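[step 3/7] fold_predict: job queued, chain A
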Amino acid sequence: MTHTPTERRSPFATALLVVGGLLAVMWALEIIDTVTLNALDSHGIEPRQFSDLPNILWSPLLHFGWAHLISNSVPFLVLGVLTYLSGAVRWLVTTVVSTITSGLTAWLLAAAGTITAGASGVVFGYLTYLLVRGIFTKKPSQIIVAIVVFLLYGGVLLGVLPGAPGVSWQAHLGGAVGGVLAAYLLHSKRERALR
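[step 4/7] structure written:
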């Protein structure tokens, strides 16, 4: 009897599977939302409503229509995969921290009567994580990644400023802060000393 060793999946394939799987969940939820005539939209974050605090955890999975989801899909996939290539735990920490800081900032600062949802806060978290981690690690490869990411996506950083109506700059700002915080927690000198 012969036995062939199980082939290990490449880190890129794993990253694509995990981040792409999460993106597939977003698309499935938008199909459900469309079929139910936008019934899921009410599960976003309504500012300063204590009953909506748990919505912070799943609001990045929900979107206000196909255009909203499509605009978030490519940056979520690209930046999410690049973040995942730092390691599964680092991706998870960055995702969770960005989700919470983005959601709390929207909950605290968004206009009353609005609802915030969408993955863009997490996208901003991935973006700033990738941009600043090289400052903490001083690794040339990560600094090069930061430069490339900035050239490709740096212009969206203006999204942390008040601008277009219907766009949650608050969630973007919170997500961006979360990405910097995650990079600090995961790569600071203190964290390296603890490891």
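[step 5/7] annotate
Residues 11-194 form a domain with the Rhomboid-like fold fold (CATH 1.20.1540.10).
The two ends are 44 Å apart (CA to CA).
exit 0
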